[in-house]
Amino acid sequence: MQAVDFNNAYYIKLGIGGKWEESSIRENKIRIGWANWIVEEINQKNWDTLKAKHQHEYKNKGSATADINALKALVESTSDDIWITFHLSQLWWCRVGESGISKDEISNYRKVLGHWYNHDIHNQPLILNQIPE
Asked: pTM for the complete prediction?
């Protein structure tokens, strides 16, 4: 494997308590929340409208802004970015696939380009306690 070039790197928690880690990795998806939001509205990328519509769901304006910015980063991300998460004491990484958020019986999600990886460019596992600081 060649060196991994990327524009941006993002961390994502795959569900509260990591509840979507296994299915995300197995199904090559980045599973996200926002369960009560309309997927078509998310994919329209009108962030100010979404923020105004859902502001009441948040305790304060700052948390609403942070949440919208996190969703925006995922929706607008390209295959030039990498996304990382942690599962079973390993670092996993991927690139996003086709644009747009979809929904299934589990959650909203974005497809991964190819699959999730848990190894480095030398095919060595990315075990958390062995990753250099």
From this structure: 0.91
